[in-house]
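FORM 12-B: Structure-to-Sequence Request
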């Protein structure tokens, strides 16, 4: 079985990311139809077919909560997987991720600071506002991160080399050690919003090297 957790609530409940049972995790479960399996209807819980004691997530789609992107900021989620008939086995919790959809992108605000304004006009880490400053042709999650307005050549190079920054890399999953795509960048934002030290390290890194 699989459902969606509120990543922020999970972080507050379990800052050490310790193994927890289903009952302990239940306050984090989002009782909303955010999942779809093999093109079916959107539901809150999906029962995954098992084959040779394995379950594939390749046909699983996850959606964002309607209206949450009005501020131009993406919410983060986690997947919770558990065996319904084996309560003695702890559930599995995925890493935090961000859902970027057409609905979310179309809700982005157009009134955003210019890239020529001072770096600390709104936030000390200027790349935070890039999601709400998409260029006119909205990039997909598979396009280069440089398609996001406010991310210039220097920032692109820095994002690609995150794995070389030991303090930053130690707080990120390996797939974010080299951020090249818009989808990876969204995941980086979500991770930083849930990890204050990571956010500080990124702020220092980009403010030292410049954001563009």
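FORM 12-B RESPONSE
SEQUENCE OUT:
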């Amino acid at each position: 079985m699989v459902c969606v957790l509120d990543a922020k609530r999970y972080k507050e409940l379990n800052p050490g990311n310790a193994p927890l049972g289903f009952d302990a995790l239940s306050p984090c479960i989002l009782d909303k139809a955010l999942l779809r399996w093999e093109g079916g209807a959107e539901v809150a819980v999906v029962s995954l077919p098992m084959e040779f004691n394995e379950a594939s997530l390749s046909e699983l789609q996850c959606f964002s909560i309607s209206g949450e992107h009005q501020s131009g900021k993406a919410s983060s989620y986690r997947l919770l997987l558990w065996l319904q008939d084996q309560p003695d086995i702890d559930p599995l919790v995925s890493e935090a991720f961000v859902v970027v959809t057409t609905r979310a992108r179309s809700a982005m605000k157009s009134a955003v600071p210019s890239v020529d304004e001072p770096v600390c006009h709104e936030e000390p880490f200027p790349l935070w506002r890039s999601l709400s400053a998409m260029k006119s042709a909205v990039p997909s999650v598979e396009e280069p991160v440089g398609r996001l307005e406010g991310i210039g050549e220097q920032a692109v190079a820095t994002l690609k080399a995150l794995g070389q920054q030991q303090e930053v890399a130690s707080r990120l999953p390996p797939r974010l050690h080299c951020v090249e795509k818009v989808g990876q960048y969204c995941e980086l934002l979500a991770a930083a919003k849930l990890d204050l030290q990571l956010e500080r390290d990124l702020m220092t890194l980009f403010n030292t090297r410049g954001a563009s």
